[in-house]
Design brief:
Length: about 475
């Protein structure tokens, strides 16, 4: 099997598969997956690729985990499906208990759905119904951040900060207020990262007052950013200020940890890095089942769930929510996470990877910033490190880098939001099982990709 550059001629896109919705007729096809094991993916031509981004930051355990596959087969043979309004399942109970123990006090209840977008919708509806039950029916407004991303369903898009998505789907959405995300790299004039973080928190307070505190239901944010902000970690004062503002106004604080949760930042919740600023609700997905099955989770306090149960029950449900097969897989994933100390590995390998990426930033003319926590890291691409000028948007820099990555045996994940308004970045977030040697191989190959792209830009007069 070839672990060097991919040289096979690209096939033409098939009109039968999912890519026909994304790639125009006649476009080159993506490599076709044949098998995957550990941190490696292999296509049908025998080329191997390091899974640098865990797919879309989902495959936390890597591929082909024997324990997870055994749990999948065992549960599928016993009962692949049972509707939770008719039957309880041992797998559901085990997963819920594991999640509650790992998430800690204040997150005793887990509502299990089929993905991050559903989890966002669930959290919003849960908060709204709880406000009605408490006698606060005027609370319905959810404030988000600009930029921000919380899913692709209409409710999730409504609270996301993506101007382009709102241009297309805006007539279908009920607009909500948004406040600026506390960037640390592209700062307004006369600001430091800390002063801007404080300004962004103050903007939240002002937005709540402007809307009327009695009408604001919740504020939703990613404690460590995903694709909307490129692994953004705000200056520390931001988290405590946001918590205090929400508490003072009776506004629920929702942390979207679809990417940052389930151990990726070195703790089970990214929220654990700021213990004095715990949210009221947490949304999880991706890493909970590590790509082996779809899963989304809303974690909530027992007191809030019990309020709804006494009032007739939560008005939410899906055909596949809390299904035994997905729950058994999730329980096996979390057992691996704990017993193999993968959160500790995320801290250790994250520090090693951060060091290698920082070194790349010092030598590459197109890496302007490195940020993130644990194994949720990103590099920001620039045309000029001094001015922080972006690579021209029409060059579609993240996607070009992704294509070059494949040629060097790297599977990179890029998803441009807001048409690149806030910058271009590439997530560097390998599975939590990654070793030191694999970290070094990722860094070496990524350096070669960056060098090739910089040479291409220089030849075209961009640099």
């Amino acid at each position: 099997m070839n672990e060097a550059a991919v040289t096979a001629a690209p096939a033409i896109r098939s009109d039968a598969g999912i890519q026909s919705f994304f790639l125009p007729p006649g476009a080159a096809a993506k490599p076709r997956i044949a098998r995957a094991e550990g941190v490696w993916l292999e296509d049908t031509d025998g080329n191997r690729y390091l899974d640098v981004s865990s797919g879309p930051v989902a495959s936390n355990l890597g591929h082909g985990n024997p324990r997870v596959l055994a749990a999948l087969e065992r549960q599928a043979r016993a009962a692949a499906f049972a509707f939770p309004m008719q039957f309880e399942s041992a797998a559901n109970i085990e997963l819920g208990e594991r999640l509650a123990r790992l998430a800690g006090p204040g997150f005793e209840r887990a509502f299990l759905v089929s993905g991050g977008s559903e989890a966002t919708e669930t959290a919003i509806k849960f908060c709204r119904q709880h406000a009605v039950v408490r006698g606060e029916p005027r609370r319905w407004k959810v404030i988000g951040r600009e930029p921000g991303y919380h899913g692709n369903t209409l409710g999730a898009l409504a609270v996301s900060g993506d101007a382009h998505a709102h241009e297309v789907f805006g007539p279908l959405l009920r607009a909500v207020d948004r406040v600026p995300a506390p960037f640390t790299y592209r700062l307004p004039p006369n600001h430091t990262a800390e002063s801007y973080a404080r300004a962004c928190a103050t903007a939240l307070d002002e937005a709540i007052r402007r809307e009327g505190p009695e009408t604001v239901l919740a504020f939703i944010m990613e404690p460590v950013g995903g694709l909307a902000t490129g692994a953004l970690v705000a200056a520390d004062p931001y988290y405590a200020m946001v918590r205090e503002i929400c508490t003072r106004h009776g506004v629920l604080l929702i942390y979207d940890e679809v990417m940052s949760g389930a151990g990726r930042t070195g703790t089970f919740l990214a929220a654990d890095h700021w213990p004095g600023a715990r949210p009221d609700i947490v949304i999880l997905a991706k890493g909970v089942t590590a790509g082996y099955t779809p899963m989304g989770v809303m974690m909530a306090p027992a007191a809030m769930a019990d309020d709804l149960a006494r009032a007739g029950g939560f008005m939410q449900g899906f055909t596949y929510f809390a299904n035994p097969l997905s729950c058994a897989i999730g329980a096996a994933v979390l057992a691996e996470l704990e017993e193999r100390d993968l959160m500790g590995n995320a801290r250790r390998m994250g520090a090693r990877l951060r060091g290698r990426l920082d070194a790349l930033a010092r030598t590459s003319p197109i890496v302007g910033d490195v940020r993130g926590l644990g194994l949720l890291l990103a590099i920001e691409l620039v045309a000029d490190k001094g001015t922080k000028a972006m690579i021209p948007l029409e060059r579609m820099a993240p996607y070009r880098l992704q294509a070059l990555g494949l040629r060097h045996g790297l599977a990179l994940y890029c998803r441009r939001t807001n048409r690149g308004t806030y910058g271009d970045w590439v997530m560097v977030s390998p599975p939590l099982i990654v070793t030191a040697d694999e970290i070094d191989l990722i860094a070496d190959r990524l350096a070669a990709v960056l060098d090739e792209y910089a040479a291409e830009l220089r030849a075209d007069g961009v640099l």
